Amino acid sequence: MSEALQFAQTTLQEVALVFMAVVYMLRLRWIFKRFPAAKERQGSTGNPDTNPRKGFLYSWAIIGMPWVMESSRTKPIMYGMFVIFHIGVVVAIAESFIIPYAPGFLAANPWLGTFIQVSCTAACLVGVLRFIRRVSDKGMRAISSPDDYFSLLLLTVWFAFAALAGTNDASGGEGFLLTYFWMTAFFLVYVPFSKISHYLYYPITRYYFGKSMGNRGTYPIVKSVPGYVKTAGE
Amino acid sequence: MSTQTRSHKATKVLERLTKKVNRQIAGTMLACVHCGQCTDSCHYVQTNPGDETFIPAWKADRVRKLFKRHMDWTGRVIPWWVKASSVYTDEELEELRDIVFGKCTNCRRCSINCPMGVDFASMNRMARGLLVSVGIMPEGVSVVSKDQWEIGNQMGVLKEDYLDTLEWMEEELQEELEDPTLKIPVDKEDCEIVYTINPREAKYDPRSISDAAKIFHVAGESWTMPSEGWDMTNFGLFSGDDDLGGAVAKRVYEAVERLNGKTLVMSECGHGYRSTRCEGPNWSQTDLSFKAESSVDTMLRYIKERRIKVDKSKNDFSVTFHDSCNNARSCGLFEEPRELLRLVVADFREMYPNRAENYCCTGGGGAMSMSEYTPQRLKSAKVKADQLIATGADKVVTSCHNCVDGLNDCIKHYKVGMEVTQLVNLVADALIIEPAKTTVVVEEVPAAASAPVVEEKAAAAARPLTGRKILVIDDEPDVCTFLSTVLEDNGAQVLTAADGDTGLALARSEKPDLVTLDLNMPGKDGGQVYEAMRADDELKELNVVIVSGKPELRGLIYDKDVRKPEGYLDKPVSEETLLTSVRKILEVGEDNVN
Ligand code: SF4
Ligand code: SF4
Q1: Domains of chain B and any CATH numbers
Q2: Which of A156, B300, B438, B592 stands 20 to 30 A from B544 (CA)?
Q3: Is the confidence at residue B449, as pLDDT, over 50?
Q4: Atom number of ligand 2 nearest to Cα B59
């Protein structure tokens, strides 16, 4: 392994990770210190079987329950793309630890390399489809910022290199691996300033929304069932 | 930061924004990933395909851009990268007003459909509050807020009018149940229930008060209505003004405490329930020392406890139920109204989608008071109209007075041919009233005198408007004939005018007791006629009832800074509604005829 790759896999990643962690700490401190949470004084309403605790737990879990929200229930393809994309994220991040710190494990389990390649390739394809949607749909264009386009492109290209680097095979040259690790480092530094850091906010927004909806008996959502539908001639 | 000069109002809005954002709102500002998943949950989007300015995330970004530019890191350093920008002029604030008031009813349907937990509706409400704090708001919002601040209720109903209405309803009920001891108690202390209402009931729908009174009476409830703090609606919810919200909620809480009531019961009003039951304690920083519930809960409890008996066959028509966004999505009141409905009607059909997923009546968020946005509101009501039509029901029931108006507009606009009613009316109609529940007092009348007196009373009751002069101003001959016939049949002397100028001339020469006024007329429209009447020393005290089939023209009357009309009726108007309203205004009870 070249020194450049050694550096990119370890020192560079560690520095980038520390940078991200520091920025995130500052970010969280900003959110919790700068913005006090509004206190909810009202007594509970609605379904007596629920409460604020159930509400926020349900709210956190809602992302894994596509049948709950109408927006995911009625768009299964979009939800499938979301799942593939985010599995890709987890796998590509895990890869950046496995290759430098557990190369033996990867070598001993060839299925793992295949899994990384398949999931990152699928995520890359989803990224391309998402990018096409964002560019071609008038409504999506209207709500997109340069950061939205760039973050999506960045991840899509990163998935491609994560797939190419997935088996940690440098026999054909170190180009893919080097690019993957340099991109990972850039990604770690860029993320706290971009929309990609939404995962940092997800627990916060969903906690407060879920807590309130639990207190008010709206969460868990009672699924809307089709009722009487007028038929022709009636 | 730009060196561009900033208007005083823009400066104040930005200053207040930095103080107003709490952790929940900050999360909503930060967490949107612009995924577009919430886009088609919004009824405005569904009815305006291709117009991106109705997309929830687009609307949210008009507010979010300020947060990003002034409070968030990336937006402060490289604003264009995250589409952050500031606001400088009053015109820009006015554009924002047309978005936050005109393009969103704060229904929260997008909020529950956002995977990230972004609660746009709450953010939108905050933005409304910021604009209101610098005086930038739709005219109707300003007028209604002023009434609620100054008069204590959002329809400007004076205390004496409110008390008169209660007295009048009490008399009607005494007569209906043949029980002269029946009371609508006012300011009675130590009762189980303190009952609060929407001022719309006192002004346009007194039957809902008498229906509630009938139910309390039959249930043998110890209850009262307060003479102050009786309006449980709260325009602060719509205007985003937490100070108004807190002050109004506090008035109601203080009324309950003053009377030492055990339970505050709110009549069927979605935003009133949400404001008083859920948000009010937050706005007013008050922990309630009493129980608070919707009248839906109360009525259901009475049936379950067998305090009242109902016969669902009395309501032998098909009904569907519209969930008010505030009751349902924001307060979880889903199953109680359905349970109650199944007990009092024979044929209940669910509307789809329903409960937390129901669509707004499209008159929510104070939209009914913002006439400048009526065309786009009615356009968005197509979603609701389709929902209603799909049920094939005869009537739609809702537990919200605001939704009653919103649905009525929708039904009229799309010619759905459905009637709107509330649970209190259905429960009252289904009541089985046992004789023991009423006390019939037989007045002793000397035999010789009794026959003519009774006959005279019966004749007077049959023609309650005898001696009253009423002017009908309407350009539609059918309507004119209908209104005159009903009024004449009830004893009134009726004059008619087919246009505004003739109407004004007749009003001056004939000095009627009451005028019914159409809004949409050739030549002088109803708004101009109304304004001329209120500006004329001789006519300004005239009782005026607007009778209109064009809700979008409401602004012709309600946006003007003149005394409000005594009544407002939607066309087509039924005989019963017309008479109830006219008799109430002229203070003519069935046994109280001149
Ligand atoms: S508000 Fe939620 S659903 Fe809508 S675009 Fe933003 S993240 Fe997506
Ligand atoms: S709150 Fe309701 S009206 Fe407003 S954007 Fe969301 S769905 Fe549309």
Answers
A1: 8-137 (1.10.1060), 148-304 (no CATH), 312-430 (3.40.50), 461-592 (3.40.50.2300)
A2: B592
A3: no
A4: 5
